[in-house]
Amino acid sequence: MQQPYTAPPPDTAGRVLVVDDDPTVAEVVAGYLSRAGHAVDRAADGPSALASAAGQWPDLVVLDLMLPGMDGLEVCARLRERGPVPVIMLTARGDEDDRVLGLEVGADDYVTKPFSPRELVLRVESVLRRTRPAGQPPAAPGPLAAAGLTVDAAARRATRNGVELSLTLREFDLLAFLLRHPGRAFGREELMREVWGWDFGDLSTVTVHVRRLRGKIEDDPARPRLIRTVWGVGYRFEPDVTAGPEEDRRA
To answer: Is the pLDDT of residue 6 over 60?
Structure first.
């Protein structure tokens, strides 16, 4: 019997589920996370990971993409069916398709093997800070609203024309940030720092999340009107202006 999802208390150490079929990698990662003060559960395959999460819901999952039998993408999807949980994907290859695919299924970040365990710990702690209530950026008084979109930061709820949107944790944070700053252009580095809370990382993370968010809030994601691409800068949220020639609708 699976336990119902409940949000982790903001003042407790994080519980991290490490899922990797390489015992050496799992042991090293678990050791670094434990020394950083986190409770760590380990699993060597997809079914074991799902069983572990059913027994004790994690605050974050470090998930290897290339697992035997049930791969990391399927594990991530099945976890997300049960409740929101941040995921950092591990991949043994530097192939951009692998990285993008992980982000497309809702992973908050990825790390390519071989990696620095210290850097992984920093990324874990950054994601935990951003996804807990105490770590959320200050919200404007009351819900944010523009162009048929409404974002209630306190309730973590977003709607489009009255219909609730199914957003990942990071998609929600990105939408809320853009609604708080209409008309201002932000570079990907700035968005990564302000929304993700990272001063490092692959900027394709931002690109993929913008594309996913457009798919959920734009009438025509191929010709976006709300989240514009500004050449040489980044992105801008403009709910009331028609697209101009400077906008790159393919990005």
So the answer is: no
**Structure letter (DSSP) for residue 228:** E
The DSSP secondary-structure symbol of 172 reads: H
The overall pTM is greater than 0.70: no
Query: pLDDT digits over 171-186, tens only?
Result: 888 999 999 999 999 9
Beta strand segments in the chain, E: 15-19, 39-43, 60-64, 87-91, 109-112, 144-146, 149-152, 157-160, 163-164, 185-187, 227-230, 234-237
What's the order of all strands across the beta sheet hosting 185-187?
185-187, 234-237, 227-230
The tokens of 27 are what? 């042991």
Q: Does the pLDDT at position 219 exceed 50? A: yes
Which of 88, 94, 43 shows the shortest CA–CA distance to 69? 43
